[in-house]
Amino acid sequence: MIRVVLADDQALVRAGFRMLLENEDGFEVVGEAADGAEAVRLAVATKPDIVVMDVRMPGTDGLAATRQITEATDVKVLVLTTFDVDEYVYEALRGGASGFLLKDTEPVELLHALRVVASGEALLAPTVTRRMIEDFVSRPEQRRVDSGVLREVTDREREVLALVAGGLSNEEIADHLVISPATARTHVSRVMTKLRARDRAQLVVLAYESGLVRPRER
Length: 218
What we know:
The chain is an alpha/beta fold and 218 residues long. Helices cover 51% and strands 13% of the residues. It contains ten helices and five strands. This is DNA-binding NarL/FixJ family response regulator.
C-alpha cells in the first residue's frame, strides 16, 4: 500500500486526485493540505510514502515545503509543475524532490509515477527532466558543487552515474554496459551511498553540478 498526502491549494484538484487514488488498488490517501506549511505538518505526523506537492501555494510554497520535508523525514516528494514554471523544477530536485509531473498529465501516468517514486527505481520523465536540468545548470548563476565530491567514485561508477543522469533505467544501463541488471543496481546503489544521495533525482543533479555531465550545446 502506497500512502499519499495531497498538497494543492485548489480543493477540486485535491478531490480529483483523491478520487483517482481511492479507486485504484494499492493507494491510500492519508491527508490533504492546502498550503506548504500544512503539507510539512502532515508529512511529519503521518509519515506517508509520498507527498504530491504543488509548487504555487499561499504562505509556504511547494519548493520550501519540499526542502523542509526531505530534511526532516524520509518521505519522498513528487512535485507538480506546468511548462510556464519550468524554473522551479531544478530547485525542487535540489531541494530533495524525487521527481515531478506536469499538471496536465494523464491519470494513468500519475499512478505510474507514484509507483516509480515509491520504489525509488527511476527518475520521472527523464527526457523532460534532462532538458530542464540542462537548461538551468547551464546558467552562470547556478551554484556548482566541488568536483572533488566524486573522488571516492570509481571510473565504472562515474560511467554509471553519467548514464543515470542521461535518464537510463537500471535495465538500460545494464544493456549499455553489457552487464547484468543486478550489477547495474549494485553500481547505482554504491554511487548513491558514496555521494549521500537519497535517490536517483539527486544523482542527476550531482552529475551536472560536479561537471561530470555537461549541458548540450545549443
